[in-house]
Amino acid sequence: MHLKNIRLQQFKNYNKAEVQFSEEINCFVGINGSGKTNLLDAIHYLCLTKSAINGMDNLNVQHQREFFTIFGDFDLEGKELEIRCIFESGKKKQLLQSGKAVEKMSDHVGLLPVVMIAPDDTMLIKDGSEERRRFFDNMLCQLSKSYLDSLVRYQHFLKQRNALIKQFAEKGRWDKNFIAVYDREIIQLSIEIAWQRANFITEYEPLLKAYYAEISDNQEEIGITYDTHCLFENFEKNFQSAAQKDFLLKRTNMGVHKDDFVFELEGYPLKKFGSQGQQKSFVIALKLAQFQIFLSHKKTKPILLLDDIFDKLDDNRIQKLMQLVADHRFGQLFITDARPERSKEILSKINSESRFFLVKEGVLKYMDQ
Amino acid sequence: MNFPSKLIENAVNEISKLPGIGKKTALRLALHLLKQKETFTEDLSASLLALRKEVQYCNSCFNISDEPVCSICTSQKRDKSIICVVEDIPDVLAIENTSQYQGLYHVLGGVISPIQGIGPDDLKIEALIQRVANKQTEDKIEEVILALPATMEGDTTSFFITRRLKEFGIKVSTIARGIPIGGELEYTDEITLGRSILTRVNYSAD
To answer: Which residues 125-164 of chain B have a CB within 8 Å of chain A?
Structure first.
């Protein structure tokens, strides 16, 4: 699978732009703030219907404009697919597959797999459990419609249950019969989601270990522990007995929304004991394992977006990553870099077609090699 | 929108408060009224006023009615041992149009949704329980059919009602969900298709 071209209108700092891409490596160069990452984000939009950076669509419209459009032609193993993403402020975002409107955005998710490696990925290690749940949920949702369905239902029932608890708190009375309706759904869905997460980790962890070993020089043992209370035998009973706590804290305290994925280094939490370098290697391994899992499930190489990695990674890790590129382990690649000479030098050593684009204040130009 | 007259503006503002009607349609309707005879508008407003002032809801099933008890509830032809629970009045009309149902109805007036502040007490759920409880002696209710929307709120409401009806030991059923008649499997969404396989029914050769 690859993206043949992209056409932007009033997207972020681009008024109008149109470019043809290489099937192999595409490199966007230009000074900071010129709009390199915005191009990666536009590709992210086409694949996943949303921004990788900014959750609010209206913040991605060019200043003083009302709408943006992103059009792109994909090649899906020889089959053409045109994707159009249209957003007008105050209206519902539209996505069209070869002219046909997609009713639910979730129907599009999973069709065009994409993996992005960005400077702030270390958030996955440093921040709270919410970031990690989102990372794994995103992946699982792209792999399984039934997981997506369960998760949407879970979040909805959780919202209802929390609203109900707040009402109980205001009235000072807990209605056991009323809340039981939500307890049943949340317990069932928690068990379902937790099983799927646990199964996924058993498939994902070996890939993660393999990539970590490739990226880092050291031979340390890494791993992930899926931390949940939803697969214990007495989960249902525990859920019920947390009612008192729920009432006092005015929210639901048991369920998969409390899960975590603990990253480990030699059996200890990476967050506390990993060095900067180990953490960087770990997040790259996380993303490359994601690439591998999409590849094995979707039978097509996902698009890989590499944001500013030459600047943020040390030479050793860049070299390892580029070795993977040189081995043709990846499909289509999009890279951003503020320094053209550097990326040219790195990419010239690789036997792949690479195309360079100069980005300057929202204007895109092809660069001669 | 700028109007040449305050009268038109007022009328447009009022009409456009109706669901599905924007300012342009409202203007068209207002101008249409001006083109008709005066009696047309008088009849229209009189009928709307009468509707609002005199409308009644059936004491038993809460369907719209001209009498304290509606024509369905009083009809001799209806099977009084079955109650079909629906969210709102249009659902009664929809089921009536199928001509497949001869029992009684019960209109809840909504579905449970704590986010929107709608709890069981805001709906006619207690009245339904009373109906079933009162009839335990003579013309016993034998079945309650839950015909609520196939949404998460609809499901929760169905489950809540089922729990409340448990003590009476009557049959509680819910309308089937699955492939629409004349529908192709390949175009059916995965969730509906998946559920329809899970809740498949026996096929008889008779």
So the answer is: 152, 156, 159-160, 163-164
Q: How many CB pairs under 8 A join A and B?
A: 40
- Interface confidence, given as ipTM, is 0.71
For residue A146, list chain B residues with Cβ-Cβ distance below 8 A. 190-191, 194
The answer to whether B172 and B111 have CB atoms below 8 angstroms apart is no
CB-based contact B190:A145 (threshold 8 Å): yes
Is A5 part of the contact surface with chain B (CB cutoff 8 Å)?
no
Domain A126-298, classified CATH 1.20.1050.90, yes or no: yes
> A31 exposed, middle or buried (CB, 10 Å; 0-12, 13-18, 19+)?
exposed
Mutation site for B-interface testing, chosen from A145, A156, A181 by largest number of B Cβ within 10 Å: A181
Assigned CATH for A1-113+300-369: 3.40.50.300
* DSSP tag of A137: H
B145 is in which domain, residue-wise?
A: 77-202
Hey, is the C-beta of A251 within 8 angstroms of any chain B C-beta? no
Q: Is the pTM of this model over 0.90?
A: no
Cβ within 8 Å, pair A156-B152: yes
What is the tens place of the pLDDT at every residue in A1-44?
Answer: 999 999 999 999 999 999 999 999 999 999 988 899 999 999 99
User: Which mean pLDDT values do the consecutive 10-residue runs of chain A (369 residues) have?
Assistant: 95 93 93 91 95 87 93 93 94 92 88 91 92 94 89 95 94 90 95 96 95 84 95 94 93 96 93 88 93 93 92 81 86 92 86 89 80
User: How far is the C-alpha of A139 from the C-alpha of A287, rounded, in Å?
Assistant: 10
Clarify whether residues B26 and B113 are in a common domain. Answer: no
Residues B89 and B26 in one domain: no
